[in-house]
Write a structure and sequence with these properties.
about 110 residues, elongated, DUF4064 domain-containing protein, transmembrane helix, DUF4064, membrane, transmembrane
């Protein structure tokens, strides 16, 4: 697994774990002072996008552009979460996606 795949995998695994923690442990949402239905809806959306980032981290080895788009979409979508816990996964997913895009463009330029 390349660096971008590893960064995407780590970012999405952390984001999935954090999303599941926020959704299942009521004390976390109380500590964040957010107990509304909208907060849980945003966290569920972040969970779905984190799964998309996980798929992107595996796809990036065969289709770098599509995997990069998946990881960047998960990072951008993860920003909708209001929790500070998601900052590290957002950075990992975004960095992995950007590295995959840059490497894919370099391969395309070298091949021409």
């Amino acid at each position: 697994m390349k660096l971008e795949g590893l960064l995407g995998f780590l970012g999405s695994a952390l984001a999935i774990a954090f999303s599941l923690m926020v959704l299942t442990i009521p004390g976390i949402s109380q500590a964040l002072e957010e107990e509304s239905f909208f907060f849980y809806l945003l966290t569920a959306g972040t969970l779905i996008l984190s799964i998309l980032g996980l798929v992107g981290s595996f796809v990036v080895a065969h289709k770098p552009r599509m995997g990069a788009v998946f990881m960047i979409a998960a990072a951008i979508g993860g920003t909708m979460s209001v929790s500070v816990m998601f900052l590290i996964p957002i950075m990992l997913l975004g960095l992995g996606g950007l590295i995959a895009l840059v490497n894919q463009e370099e391969i395309a330029l070298d091949g021409e």
